[in-house]
UniProtKB/TrEMBL annotation:
This is Uncharacterized protein. It comes from the Bacteria. It comes from Psychrobacter glaciei. Gene3D superfamilies: Met repressor-like. SUPFAM superfamilies: Ribbon-helix-helix.
Length: 67
């Protein structure tokens, strides 16, 4: 799986939490954020029913254009 950069602004207290959690768990910040997104996806009904098939399909326009 390829990786891409995600630039977002989040509240400072959330950023501090992620930094502390990453340090305490011995994980890199990017690993922790990926785990958080994975957990969110699993409980996101829209993702599971609508978006997951589009993302996983190798024939989508986005994948065909390398986006």
């Amino acid at each position: 799986m390829s990786r891409s950069t995600l630039n977002v602004r989040i509240p400072e207290d959330k950023h501090k939490y992620l930094r502390l959690k990453a340090t305490h768990s011995g994980k890199q910040l990017q690993e922790l954020v990926t785990e958080c997104i994975d957990q969110y996806q699993q409980s996101d009904e829209d993702y599971m029913s609508k978006f997951k098939p589009l993302i996983e399909s190798p024939n989508t326009k986005e994948n065909a254009h390398g986006a």
